[in-house]
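Example record

The entry below shows one chain as it appears in the dataset: sequence first, then structure tokens.
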Amino acid sequence: MSDILFIRHAETDMAGTFCGHSDPDLNARGHEQTAELIGRLRPENIGTVYTSDLRRAQTTAEAIASAFGIECTPRRALREISFGEWEGLTWKEIEQHDEAYARRWMADHPLLSAPEGEALCDFEQRVLEEVAFLSTKAAEQDIAVVTHAGVLRTVLVSLHKCSEEDAWRLTKPYCAIVRHVVAASSQLQFVEARS
């Protein structure tokens, strides 16, 4: 039996926007959060780190890998959902730009994507396929996976029947950790979140 620690990346200057596939690096607070995260991870027996290939996740993951003296492998499939034309915008900006579509998106979500964005069903399929791959790697050793809130929510909701509301609450803090126990019957445990 081994563990996958799914970890949300640390903060960027795009906090409060639809960041998606945008590629900001960590801000000063994000670097502080990463140092705190490494302290919380010290008791873990992490053998390798996998990460989204976006900078905010990679910077967080590379700091963990360096602290543990282990490898860090980027995986494109661990990216956040793409928000298309909404990338980098706040909800207020989206409503000002196209109020009718914003209202329609709220009413039809999750069936309606952001304009030119990734469909939620495609995103979830991508994430679940990646989790299956990561589970084979975790059979060999405990691993850390630095990724995005949307990925963690998919794991919580799709694999462990967590409510949407609870999944949002648990994954909102930067550097939130969700422990996934890889065994014959997989278990999930929310470890901790700090803002």
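Notes for this example: The chain has seven helices and six strands. Residues 64 and 124 are 26 Å apart (CA to CA).
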